[in-house]
């Protein structure tokens, strides 16, 4: 077998140029998009709540309001409890006042203590009455302006941070293993000796092939590969193996890496 049978990118001298293939780049993009989206939303929620408490602590005015309503909403994480309340505040135009209606999520303990029509302590922003809270003790007693942000940051580290690092570590290890073999490996012709189809999800089929090749030392080596769509029994494919250990090999093209042919001058 001559080297002309091998793909042009594999016929160049070692070390070859190896990059991530399109599939690999897509996975990296989706992972980064998911991680940044989840992290950004979590930190935004935490930062928004911290900002509200900071504003109320610095500019807040304590008033007595009225419980206007109470409701429970179901969610994936269990029931959520909300209180509707109203309070009177000065508009800043002479002695005129206005009534403000607001809604806030509260915990179960507080919900058991609330009755529609009863009075309740409220703190609101003297510069913007749209910012208010029934958690007066929590606002006044807060000593950490970044409490919720830190909690969300910890949540991001635990999920998706740690699982994401584990998955990313496994993924990049597979890529670097393939890259080392493609960069310095020798090429051989592999024969497909067996092929079977299997179900991945429902009716979606995958293709698994078993193959054999002979390395430069005359040793016959066998291997198998899942999700290899073009393999049929009797066909020949290119395999790239580690000259020091031909058991370390990849059927070309592999899952995550691909060789790029250098431009000839």
Q: If you had to describe this structure to a student in words, what would you say it looks like?
A:
The structure is a single chain. The chain has 265 residues and is α+β, with helices and mostly antiparallel strands. The protein folds into two domains: 3-21 and 172-260, no CATH class; 40-154, OB fold (Dihydrolipoamide Acetyltransferase, E2P), CATH 2.40.50. Helices cover 32% and strands 39% of the residues. The chain is built from four helices and twelve strands, in the order βαβββαββααββββββ. The protein has helices at residues 22-59, 108-111, 136-140, 147-184; strands at 17-20, 60-73, 80-90, 97-106, 119-125, 128-133, 186-201, 204-214, 220-225, 236-242, 245-251, 257-260. It has a five-stranded antiparallel β-sheet with strand order 4-3-2-5-6. Strand 3 and strand 4 form a beta hairpin. Helix 1 packs antiparallel against helix 4. The longest helix is centred in the N-terminal third of the chain and has 38 residues, at 22-59. The radius of gyration is 32 Å and the shape is elongated. The protein starts with 16 loop residues before the first strand and ends in a 5-residue tail after the last strand. The model has no long low-confidence stretch (mean pLDDT 87).
